[in-house]
Write a structure and sequence with these properties.
This protein has 470 residues and is α/β, with parallel strands linked by helices. It is built from 13 helices and 22 strands. It has one domain. The two termini are 20 Å apart.
Length: 470
């Protein structure tokens, strides 16, 4: 028992050292709170063209006019004037890891970002609060015409593509937090894959909130041209403070005819972060879009990746994992809109609630009147680890055709004492037994992840479901 206690303390220490640490970094001065003045300041600092400033100002008015949503998790405690909307370290973006300032590089070294790039990724990007501090793509891929850069650079370097797609998939009028992001956005990834080009290895981005009371509002746009194929992986962490932080991102995906986009997120924000994200994809004829969404961190997480199947024969899949520890609210799920004939989709959600944690699944499945021969499946499974843990399910199906083949299933279960006893009788500790059962519960989702991400997710889940990490 003494050895087990020591092992638990070591794991908790490793967890905090890898994800919960704070780096003392010098920042450019910027006022707290959101106003038209701060929106103009952000645009001026970035030396943006007039068309982007106009989009920001229009979005800010939308943000002011829309109330904070009340239909989901309780967001009533958010004070929008209590955050810094632009926190930029005194460091310029670098193409070489060696040129990143030592204090910032130390953060990403601890997180394993450069090591991951060397071993596995075709390109990598690292964002520290409001600024991208490192961006690099394999030279061979660059010769194929693949663009992978930060969104700030894309505004100036690829204005035609930006004007054509940016804000068209998710307009600022969509919701209050999409409007806030459009007004205050900074950083994020811009990817363009030319016709017929298949990116052989994943592109990766890592987003880190470091400063106290910081808001992070990255904006990501991925365009896969006809017949293109790309996988994008992102990770997110933040240190633990007594005060809250705000993360409100917008992700837009465009899959043109016969293209394929796979977007993978492992969200491990600290438990003082509001994570309020809008993600949407448009899928053209014969294309395929996959969202693989793992949510472990945040105080409150609200995220529902959606796919609009606009072209005949297109398909979409949302695979969602949510782990709600003590005091956490994981409000997640997925939305798929069948707007063309011969389209197929799948939404699979797995959630685990521990302590007083609450998981909520929200799923939308829409079949338009003209969408012939639709096939869709929705599955929502929840696992409760403790008596006070809770789970909710809110499916919404709007089916406008009688020939659509739709299936829906939902299950809620608990870990039985007999299961734990059986594993412990084989010499396995209670924490390890719980983790084994949880990992078995979500195995069909973790096995579709790249090996490195699957191993990291399993390690995080083991730590998060143990008694030592709340």
């Amino acid at each position: 028992m003494v050895n087990e206690g020591l092992e638990e303390v070591v794991e908790r220490t490793e967890y905090k050292e890898k994800y919960g640490f704070y780096q003392d970094v010098a920042y450019d001065e910027f006022p707290k709170g959101i106003s038209e003045k701060t929106v103009r300041m952000i645009s001026q600092i970035k030396d943006e063209p007039e068309w982007m400033l106009e989009k920001r100002l229009t979005a800010f008015k939308v943000f002011q006019s829309k109330p904070t949503p009340t239909w989901g998790a309780d967001l009533g405690k958010i004070n929008y004037d209590d955050f810094y909307y632009y926190m930029s370290p005194k460091a310029k973006e670098s193409k070489r890891w060696e040129d990143v300032p030592a204090d910032i590089k130390q953060t990403f070294d601890k997180l394993g970002v450069p090591e991951a790039e060397r071993k596995f990724f075709a390109g990598a990007e690292a964002q520290f609060d409001s600024s991208v501090v490192y961006s690099h793509i394999n030279e061979e891929l660059e010769r194929l015409g693949i663009v992978f850069t930060d969104t700030d650079t894309a505004v100036k370097k690829y204005p035609e593509l930006m004007k054509k797609y940016w804000g068209k998939i998710i307009p600022p009028t969509d919701n209050k937090f999409a409007a806030l992001n459009t007004a205050a956005w900074s950083g994020g990834s811009f990817i363009y894959v030319p016709k017929g080009v298949k990116v052989p290895m994943p592109l990766n981005a890592y987003f880190r909130i470091n400063a106290k009371n910081a808001g992070q509002f990255e904006r990501t746009l991925i365009i896969a041209d006809e017949g293109a194929d790309v996988t994008y992986l992102e990770g997110c962490t933040a240190p633990v403070y007594a005060s809250n932080a705000l993360h409100s991102a917008v992700v837009e995906l465009v899959a043109l005819d016969n293209a394929h986009i796979r977007y993978v997120t492992i969200q491990n924000w600290s438990k003082n972060v509001y994570n309020l994200v809008t993600q949407r994809a448009h899928a053209a004829k014969g294309s395929r879009v996959e969202w693989i969404d793992a949510n472990i961190g945040s105080a409150i997480n609200m995220k529902y990746p959606s796919i609009y199947l606009q072209g005949e024969g297109s398909s979409g899949e949302v695979l969602s994992i949510a782990i709600a520890g003590d005091g956490q609210v994981q409000d997640s799920g997925g939305k798929i809109y069948h707007l063309a004939k011969n389209t197929t989709s799948k939404i699979i959600s797995k959630s685990v609630s521990k302590g007083s944690g609450v998981t909520t699944f929200r799923g939308t499945l829409h079949v338009a009147k003209n969408a012939e021969n639709v096939k869709a499946h929705v599955s929502c499974d929840a696992l409760l680890l403790d008596e006070d843990a809770k789970t909710n399910t809110y499916p919404y199906n709007q089916i406008n055709r009688s020939d659509a083949m739709i299936s829906h299933e939902a299950k809620v279960g608990k870990i039985s004492d007999d299961e734990i006893f059986y594993l412990m009788s084989r010499g396995i500790s209670e924490d390890d037994a719980t983790a084994m059962i949880v990992l078995g519960f979500i195995e069909d989702l973790t096995k579709v992840l790249p090996v490195e991400y699957s191993l990291e997710l399993k390690r995080l889940i083991k730590l998060d479901t143990s008694k030592g990490v709340g």
